[in-house]
Design goal:
The chain is of the alpha+beta class and 349 residues long. Helix content is 38%, strand content 27%. The longest helix is centred in the middle third of the chain and has 21 residues. The chain is globular and about 65 Å long.
Length: 349
């Protein structure tokens, strides 16, 4: 990949329109300041989570370049775009999270006309890279917040693309904990009760001792359950560091003999927690082993003034890329703890 050529294309696109540009890697504080001024942002835009994604992609793809950038107007950051350029088996891909390119964020006071202009320039940049590197497809995603067409979709009304819908599971944490509990169906409440009687839950964040020791226990459990090494040591270390810096936490389940039988890691941003990775003893797969863990995580999130629990993607039998039985079963479990199914619109070019 010719990095200089990509940078030249990007700089030209925005400088020709009198904007300045900096990459996130050398302007982390500007990225952070931009997010602090947002009333709400998804965890995928967080500096630490992008650090993790970069390391994860390095271990998953043969090459990874981070192209995340900030646009400035009069030395003020007004627009951020999280983006990675990766290769695998001589094929090129552009993505942010999973296989999607997330919509860039504009500052709160930026009017729609300017946002559409900046998004249009961004799309031109992506299309130029697509043509230059013969990228088969680029999927841009944006969350549907209301019944109105968002700015990205307004642009795509005039661009040839394939449009589809995907779903995410979320839990709104504004309600009282008992109201949340009784929002779950009877079967789920019963399994939470049964699970709580069989296994105790321990939550480890930056305030707890022995985080490194317990992280190693969880990591080894994950390796034993997976039966293979799924990612790099550095990606595990970044998740541990997120806990030590207050941007994550670990949950372990222990039986009556104090043996760890399950656990999960959650990423924590300013507004959200995200169910990132979990592992449970294979012998307990038919037991309600994860139910009390989920409820205690919800309780913890509320105590820490988190607004939303991002549980994960909802796979359905109608998805264009047909999910396997495993992902359908995982979605069925996660859905039990959600209060809403959120739409995301995908534009494929």
């Amino acid at each position: 990949m010719k990095l200089r050529k990509i940078i030249k294309i990007l700089y030209k696109k925005y400088s020709d329109n009198n904007y300045d540009i900096k990459f996130r890697e050398i302007a982390r504080e500007d990225w952070e300041d931009f997010l602090k001024n947002k009333s709400y942002f998804s965890f995928e835009y967080d500096n630490l989570y992008l650090d993790y994604l970069k390391e994860y992609y390095k271990s998953t793809y043969s090459n990874c370049l981070e192209l995340s950038f900030i646009i400035f107007e009069n030395k003020k950051p007004i627009f951020i775009a999280p983006l990675f350029f990766v290769t695998k088996k001589n094929n090129f891909y552009l993505l942010t999270f999973q296989d999607e390119v997330y919509t860039p964020l504009g500052e709160n006071n930026l009017n729609d006309k300017v946002k559409i202009k900046l998004l249009s320039i961004y799309l031109e940049f992506l299309q130029e890279l697509k043509k230059l590197y013969k990228i088969k497809k680029i999927i841009l995603s944006s969350k549907i917040e209301s019944n109105k067409v968002n700015n990205l979709s307004k642009i795509f009304l005039n661009i040839k693309n394939k449009t589809s819908i995907t779903y995410d599971l979320e839990l709104d944490l504004d309600s009282d904990i008992n109201k949340i509990l009784y929002g779950f169906d009877y079967n789920t409440r019963s399994r939470i009760k049964k699970s709580s009687a069989s296994w105790k839950t321990n939550i480890y964040d930056l305030k707890e001792k022995n985080i490194k020791k317990n992280w190693k226990i969880f990591k080894n459990l994950h390796l034993n359950v997976s039966r293979r090494k799924t990612r790099s040591e550095k990606s595990w270390k970044l998740q541990l560091n997120s806990i030590l810096s207050g941007n994550g936490f670990l949950v372990l389940l222990k039986d009556i003999n104090n043996i760890v039988v399950g656990g999960a890691y959650f990423f924590k941003s300013m507004h959200e927690i995200y169910y990132a990775v979990s592992a449970y003893d294979r012998k307990l797969f038919k037991e309600p082993v994860g139910y009390n863990l989920q409820f205690e995580v919800i309780r913890y999130a509320k105590q820490n003034n988190i607004k939303t629990y991002r549980i994960g993607k909802l796979f359905t039998i109608n998805d264009i890329s047909r999910p396997d039985k495993k992902n359908l079963n995982i979605s069925h479990f996660k859905k039990k703890f959600s209060s809403s199914i959120c739409f995301k619109i995908l534009h494929q070019i």
